[in-house]
Amino acid sequence: MKRKLFAFIMLCIFSLSSTVFALSKNQVALGGIPLDASLIYVNSIYGPPTRIEGGSRWISHYGNGFLVYSIPKYNGKGSPYKKGVNYVDQIKVTQNNGISTPDGAYVGMKEYVIEELYGEPFNKFEQQKNIMTYWYFAETQLLAFEAKDGVVISIRICETD
Question: Mind listing the pLDDT tens digit for each residue in 104-126?
Answer without folding.
Answer: 999 999 999 999 999 999 999 99
